[in-house]
Task: structure prediction
Amino acid sequence: MSEPKLPTRAEDFNEWYNQLVLRAELADYAPVRGCMIVRPYGWALWENIQAALDRRFKATGHLNAAFPLLIPKSFLEREAAHVEGFSPELAVVTIGGNKELEEPLVVRPTSETVIGHAYAKWIQSYRDLPVLINQWCSVVRWELRTKLFLRTLEFFWQEGHTAHATFEEAEAETRQMLDVYTDFAVTEAALPVIPGLKSESERFAGADRTYSIEAMMGDGKALQAGTSHNLGQNFAKAFDIQFLDRDGERKFCWTTSWGLSTRIIGAIIMVHGDDQGLVLPPRLAPFQVVIVPIYKNDAERAQVMEAVVGLQRGLTASGVRVKLDTRDGLTPGFKFNDWEMRGVPLRIEIGPKDIAKRTVVLARRDRPGKEGKTCVDWDSLGAAVAATLDDIQAALLTRATAFRDANIHDVATYDDFKAAVETGFARVWWAGDAALEQQIKEETKATLRCIPLAQPGETGTCLMTGRPTPTQAIFARAY
RNA sequence: CGGGGCGUGGCUCAGCCUGGUAGAGCAUUCGCUUUGGGAGCGAAGGGUCGCAAGUUCAAAUCUUGCCGCCCCGACCA
Result:
């Protein structure tokens, strides 16, 4: 049961987040440090995310498969940048069945290596290409500092792995999946993300190019919400993924990988949540509508419940995810607050007064208090619910976009830059290198989040080098 | 992994300084009255005081080690 008060976001954004995750029953701490239990309400949200993404993966020709959890340690070592990037955070199994293993096994931190091994066996000819496979699984990275959903030792995600005959095809795939992520984030999660290219220093270990979608949280910090990598021929060469091409020549494949994790739940919380708690986008919410019946005695209860069950059946039949709150002994006021904390987009209040008029009260989560309440006839309830859910979905995106745009600052001086990253994103002309990024990071804690795909098509003066450049970059402090 | 803070019924915490055998509020269960924005009264159940050593006649309290959580750094999706 929920406690009366959550810290406000302005008071302590971190504490607001930590308490909300627990109280909304999205997740809980596990007995092992840094691990997370995803509770049914959180998992239902993840299932809706999975369904929305999986639909898009299938529509672009991908198939799901399952690759093993354990990977020979030597596999990680075959790709130089990959092992350098991942070895500090590997969990290693050295004993099996009470015996020391001949070769240690790592718990997958990501699956490029085992999948590369399989692809080398499966791919012989250009006719075998492209290979387009995705898997839903969890991976383990031994992180030092963890936070529920944002960074845990084990996290749930999907990882897509594809192999192609040419660089151009691989690049097109990489960009296509970035577009899929962008579309998912905007359409389903109402997250106005910025798709862009990562700088060399932020690139995935083993990739030639890394793209990401970056989102702005409610405190102005950035969160990488999904990534898509063009791996070039790096893994193909490390795992000998070759094919015989039309021209009779043996060539290395071009591979990609792309992933999106339960971290996106953290983004949804921190972008849409308010001081009352979660605000879930209708398209992903486990419950889109909660019905709170109101009554004073058994006679009223019977009367109200009869009406409520009918209304619920109608809504469910039209495809709306409805929760009926039948808990006894709790006041309506308590239930209102409880479901608001859990982020249900729309609430139906129905009591004796409504029964008499054959109406209900509809309350929108995105508009607090009386302002968000309307009175609706039973006959038009289905249409009103559908329309209002759509409206909430759109309103969340509009609000988040306005917030983001108001907190992206175009800056031309380093002083303005420092001020900008205190509260939001800094957008700058950029011709710098990894050393300058490092310097900026040390001095301001801000990192180059991405070079947005959408560029102004003009030239400007680089913030640090003073050189003319056609490129703008986004810097921010990040989770 | 470095610096700081904190671990006492499910939750928030008091008690620790000055050792003497564990408390409050909320939550839970039961009963009655309540129920349109976080209900009231009454009763009941629930704690090897994070774990392990040590000091002591006696440890929640003192000492040491370990574990975990939170915050700040470095690392990262």
